[in-house]
User: Which sequence fits this backbone?
């Protein structure tokens, strides 16, 4: 224990001085003391009228904060700047060849994205961002849906610069009009589901579009999502049991099995049975831990579930 003489030999600062040196609020200084980040001068006999802090401890924290001062952008700033979901930004970060700089504040670690990181993240986002709308409620048409022209010819609908239509014979662009008729229904009652099954299918394979026809008729646009990337069609359908439609063919099973990226499914002669990969779990956590998780999730623009999952995946050195 420090006696009065030892205390006087130690260089100390007040709480107010520590706040100025470190550049944080006075309540934050008290929090640092409480968590042991800043060491206070023992004063069991109340020799001082107010708390005294070891200057060496304060200066060490100030230096650490200086080393970890952000010089780049946060994932949330990137998501806001480019109008994308924060989870897409984190997926892009995990896909980088070289992990970006991280800064530390206490026990917390944050990404500090430098200009090169931002450029690489933008490139990844541009590859995965949808380049075509999936469903147009005004025109009631879905991407790559089969339509019948007045001539009887069957075409697939796509979108170009916000206009729906098709390239007739692969060369001439023909805009969609009221004389076109869908070859099958694309609506089904919306169902509630906790998860989905995801398929990443090559755009150059004809079976991809057969699979899409099947999904449209079985799930309807209400229960699925379609995203076009540079080389693939990413199709997500809700988990559950669905009756097979006439568009199901035997060759779809091995094709979808090969290109499934999440979830599980099987079929019999009548039904499709699908189950997502996510499983519910129950964690008993101290209230202080729960509050800390809430705060960190909020800082990163995530739900608590998303933050916990991403933190666990990072600890396991895996990607979502």
Assistant:
């Amino acid at each position: 224990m420090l006696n009065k003489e030892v205390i006087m030999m130690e260089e100390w600062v007040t709480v107010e001085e520590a706040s100025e040196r470190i550049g944080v609020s006075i309540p934050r200084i008290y929090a640092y003391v409480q968590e042991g980040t800043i060491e206070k001068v023992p004063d069991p006999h109340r020799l001082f009228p107010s708390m005294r802090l070891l200057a060496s401890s304060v200066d060490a924290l100030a230096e650490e904060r200086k080393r970890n001062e952000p010089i780049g952008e946060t994932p949330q700033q990137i998501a806001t700047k480019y109008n994308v979901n924060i989870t897409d930004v984190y997926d892009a970060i995990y896909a980088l060849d070289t992990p970006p700089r991280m800064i530390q504040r206490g026990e917390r670690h944050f990404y500090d994205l430098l200009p090169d990181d931002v450029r690489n993240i933008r490139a990844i986002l541009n590859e995965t961002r949808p380049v075509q709308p999936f469903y147009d409620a005004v025109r009631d048409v879905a991407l790559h849906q089969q339509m019948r022209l007045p001539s009887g010819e069957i075409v697939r609908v796509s979108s170009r610069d916000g206009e729906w239509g098709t390239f007739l014979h692969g060369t001439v662009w023909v805009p969609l009009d009221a004389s076109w008729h869908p070859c099958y229904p694309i609506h089904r009652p919306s169902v509630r589901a906790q998860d989905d099954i995801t398929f990443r299918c090559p755009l150059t394979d004809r079976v991809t579009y057969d699979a899409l026809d099947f999904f449209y008729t079985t799930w309807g646009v209400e229960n699925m999502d379609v995203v076009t990337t540079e080389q693939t069609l990413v199709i997500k359908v809700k988990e559950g049991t669905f009756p097979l439609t006439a568009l199901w063919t035997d060759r779809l099973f091995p094709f979808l099995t090969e290109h499934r990226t999440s979830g599980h499914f099987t079929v019999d002669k009548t039904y499709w049975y699908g189950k997502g990969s996510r499983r519910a779990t129950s964690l008993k956590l101290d209230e202080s831990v729960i509050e800390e998780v809430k705060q960190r999730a909020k800082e990163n623009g995530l739900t608590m579930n998303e933050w916990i999952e991403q933190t666990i995946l990072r600890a396991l050195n895996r990607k979502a």
Observations:
- Residues 1-9 have pLDDT under 50 and may be disordered.
- Residues 184-280 form one domain.
- The chain has eleven helices and 19 strands.
- The longest strand covers residues 196-202.
